[in-house]
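FIELD: query
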Amino acid sequence: MRDEARRQAEAACIARERSGAARLDSGFTLTAQADRIDRRPDGRLILYDYKTGTPPSLKAMEAFDKQLLLEACIAERGGFEEIPAAPVDHVTYIGLGQPPKTVTNWLDDDLVARSWAELGRLIDRYARPEQGYTARNRIQKRSDITDYDLLSRFGEWDETDPPEPEDVG
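FIELD: result
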């Protein structure tokens, strides 16, 4: 309760469960639904995401769990409905588990701009037919389970096997 009182003293909540989108130069549209967006008195935004489990660490956020970073990209481009473009001050995961934990990323070193540029390069790469879509290409832990493991028949091959391209089109 003290943490929430501090958050409310710092900024006003202007949206909950707000849909947003931003379009890359390539034509790809990134969409998201922000759990909560607050506005500070100086106009900068704060984005929050509630987690029932343990929030990702700062390192995991920058390497694997880019949800809030990409939501910041959308916010800075005015992509959330009825919220004008504004700089994002920071993003925070609020872990509701036991014990509760928050992880705040202060978006240093142009992290939002770098995240947008990285997404653009990634989408451009996947637009090339020779790139392909490799199952379990970038997972944080070998024990992670993805929504596509069944489709890729994970378990019938070893993770150290090189991918074998196959035209399915």
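FIELD: remark
The first helix runs from residue 2 to 10.
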